[in-house]
Amino acid sequence: MTNPEAERHTYQRDAQGVIDSPSLYLEWAETPWDTAVFGFPVLQINRLEVRDQSAVQDYAFFETARDRLGVRLVSCRLPHERLRESMLLEDHEFRFIEMVYQPELDNLHARDLPAPSLDVALAKSSCLPDILKIARHAFRNERFRLDPRLDPKCGDERYCRWVENSLGHPSQRMYAVHEGSRLIAFFVNEMLADGCCYWHLNAVDPEVQGQGYGRRAWLAMLYQAKKSGAGRVRTCIVARNHRALNVYARLGFRFPPPLMTFHWVREEMPPEPHRCRGSVGHKGKALR
Ligand SMILES: CC(C)(COP(=O)(O)OP(=O)(O)OC[C@H]1O[C@@H](n2cnc3c(N)ncnc32)[C@H](O)[C@@H]1OP(=O)(O)O)[C@@H](O)C(=O)NCCC(=O)NCCS
After folding, report:
1. pTM for the full model?
2. Of 16, 86, 117, 154, which is most buried, counting CB atoms within 10 Å of its CB?
3. Is there an atom of ligand 1 within 6 Å of 211 CB?
4. Burial of 132 (0-12, 13-18, 19+ CB in 10 A)
């Protein structure tokens, strides 16, 4: 460490840290659920603010910490207009991966929703194998699956584990949507303290997509959110998922400005890959 100004404001505990200097604010933490899936340490930059031109010098402290931990993947999500920050990332080998939207339907109490045409219930553990079968094939547009530098199987595994862990999660809840005995869709939701029902993950069984079940399942889940007292529903969708965007647009969700996602990947292979091991729940704040 050579910059005494930045050093004064830098601290690090295990795999998390903050640089808070006059030039740069950068806060990072390990995402242990991703580390468990990929078999090497994975970090997430949770906040990034470039304050002046010298930010680049202070950024070097993050690189030192990252390399000391043997990190091979770092994610960062930024509001769409943070171009100084995105340029700093791009100058340091981050690659743009996607834009995401976080559409919201508010004022749920006052909305007149049709009675559900599909059955919604908390998922039982006996449903888990069928739900995992959907989850393993449904998330084809997601960043861990599409970044060509990452193993797509680890991407699929990540979403399966998220689904699996939601069954015992303290605040996330998994719902199954059925037509008779046929599983149509699943949702992993979380009721936030401000009365927002956040939809983390959801999918229609690929075998019945394109037959109108998506709209019916989403309407049934809005009904369920209203019934459980939510004032609004919010989710996160990658912009390339145009089918999902159409579902939300037609249901009347509003689209605030998007966010950009970046990945930094150290590409050389570890000597002995030990991928997709262990099981760690999504207890922190996961980026979809
Ligand atoms: C997105 C998804 C939920 C849509 O479910 P679906 O059962 O195929 O959708 P439906 O048949 O009910 O169609 C509902 C609407 O989706 C949109 N849609 C469906 N297929 C589409 C396509 N091929 N192209 C564009 N829009 C499409 C349309 O707006 C359609 O309504 P319309 O036919 O009245 O125009 C489903 O594709 C899915 O589960 N995808 C994988 C997981 C995922 O993306 N989850 C959402 C993440 S936020």
Report:
1. 0.87
2. 86
3. yes
4. middle
